Amino acid sequence: MKHFKKLINVDKEKRLFTAEGGIMISELNELLRDRGYALSVLGSISELTLAGVICTGTHGTGIQFGNLASSVTEIELMTSDGEIRTLSKEADGDVFRAAAVSLGCLGVILKVTAKCEEAFNLKQNSYGANIKDLLENLDVHLKASDHFRFMWYPHTDQCVTFHTRRTQEAVRRSHSWFWDYLIGFYLLEFLLWISTWFKGFVPLINRTYSRINSKPSEFIDVSYKVFNFNCLFRQYVMEWAIPIEKTQLALFELKNWIGNSGFEAHSPVEVRFVRGDDMLLSPANGRDVCYVNIIMYRPYNKLVAHAEYWEAFKQIMLRNDGRPHWAKDHLMTAKELRPLYPKWDTFCRIRQKMDPKGMFMNENLKNTLSYS
């Protein structure tokens, strides 16, 4: 796919672009910007292919915005028998909805046509908040900006909120090498490395960095430079989508588990919000969702125990009608996943028909889909 990386066309009248599936989102951002356009929402990083972010249901945040696959209007893919098919939502119904979030098992995505909008700048305001106050006023926060997210620091009651809005104002950056890199990267990694021997140090690290990051800040930049942010160093991550009305219950349950178990959970727990869609295997199928992402860093690539945390988080998410993010750890088998997706059997029938010999199945996909 490394040679399938062209932006083929931008239809300015319909605000649609067509690009090859292997193009990196980072390249696509620049090419669209040069033509005066942009993607409406992005995830945290852009060093991913267009086909990859679509077929895994990759998302950003903003309750009026779906995941990236929800903006797709047409997909061209090569099936296991070499046939090249062009699928659209209007003409192909469930087959298109299966291909949009397909986990890569229906065929090779050659081209994608998706929605875009005129290029825009974003203003991001961040500040500290108490988790109880924030969750009790969640609806207010969700409506207060285009793209709202927050980060909770385990072992504290502190969150950092991020309100991001479209703006006509000029770019105005406020990055600091001292705070963003020396303190926010190099010192943090060193302290987390020390904490692998002195585990009781983790709550102190979380409290310290929650205070540092709670200082109010504001900056303006082109859209993709605000949507994307530095994910720091190597890490284990697990993320689940729950119905948005379960946000408060699930987060307090997680907070209580961390407090009662004594597990030294790294910070932050990132919380984002996504509009529902109709893609068969999308975690947001049929409902607006809250995505909750937990993390355990690997400072200097050191292995860090996390299995207990992962299992507890999984069980909390399942109790709150959660569905896992396909591109991250989820520890789920097909038998466990099937009840979570109303259209699971429909997807599996389409997969079997489009790839009867299992050419696009690997060991992970066999474990994920083999039940059906």
UniProtKB/TrEMBL annotation:
<feature type="domain" description="FAD-binding PCMH-type">
    <location>
        <begin position="1"/>
        <end position="119"/>
    </location>
</feature>
<dbReference type="InterPro" id="IPR007173">
    <property type="entry name" value="ALO_C"/>
</dbReference>
<keyword id="KW-0472">Membrane</keyword>
<dbReference type="InterPro" id="IPR016166">
    <property type="entry name" value="FAD-bd_PCMH"/>
</dbReference>
<feature type="transmembrane region" description="Helical">
    <location>
        <begin position="178"/>
        <end position="198"/>
    </location>
</feature>
<dbReference type="GO" id="GO:0071949">
    <property type="term" value="F:FAD binding"/>
</dbReference>
<dbReference type="InterPro" id="IPR010031">
    <property type="entry name" value="FAD_lactone_oxidase-like"/>
</dbReference>
<dbReference type="GO" id="GO:0016020">
    <property type="term" value="C:membrane"/>
</dbReference>
<dbReference type="Pfam" id="PF01565">
    <property type="entry name" value="FAD_binding_4"/>
</dbReference>
<keyword id="KW-1133">Transmembrane helix</keyword>
<dbReference type="Pfam" id="PF04030">
    <property type="entry name" value="ALO"/>
</dbReference>
<keyword id="KW-0812">Transmembrane</keyword>
<dbReference type="InterPro" id="IPR016171">
    <property type="entry name" value="Vanillyl_alc_oxidase_C-sub2"/>
</dbReference>
<protein>
    <recommendedName>
        <fullName>FAD-binding PCMH-type domain-containing protein</fullName>
    </recommendedName>
</protein>
<dbReference type="GO" id="GO:0003885">
    <property type="term" value="F:D-arabinono-1,4-lactone oxidase activity"/>
</dbReference>
<dbReference type="InterPro" id="IPR036318">
    <property type="entry name" value="FAD-bd_PCMH-like_sf"/>
</dbReference>
<dbReference type="InterPro" id="IPR006094">
    <property type="entry name" value="Oxid_FAD_bind_N"/>
</dbReference>
<keyword id="KW-0560">Oxidoreductase</keyword>
<dbReference type="InterPro" id="IPR016169">
    <property type="entry name" value="FAD-bd_PCMH_sub2"/>
</dbReference>
